[in-house]
Specification:
Elements lengths: L4 E8 L3 E6 L2 E6 L13 E5 L2 E6 L1 H22 L2
Antiparallel strand pairs: 1-2, 1-4, 2-3, 4-5
Length: 80
């Protein structure tokens, strides 16, 4: 299963961004979002190292809540 991960842009040079989520930082390509005005503080959906969609902070928060819920369920099923 492939999942996109919401991340917040910390800084970028127009081509590559340093993004952060839950204390983890990654270098992310902005190639697919060349048409978007990406600024530090913006949120993007990241999939295999590429930002694939700009998103609101609220959408990023909701996505993380769902991902956290799935991980909690998986842990509970693994301990059953």
């Amino acid at each position: 299963m492939c999942l996109g991960v919401p991340m917040q842009v910390v800084e970028h040079d127009g081509i590559t961004a340093r993004c952060e989520a839950k204390g983890i930082e990654r270098s992310v390509s902005l190639f697919l979002l060349q048409h978007e005005d990406i600024k530090p503080g913006d949120h993007v959906m990241v999939h295999v190292g590429y930002a694939i969609q700009k998103m609101t902070a609220e959408d990023a928060k909701i996505s993380w809540e769902l991902l956290d819920e799935m991980l909690t369920e998986e842990e509970l099923m693994g301990n059953a």
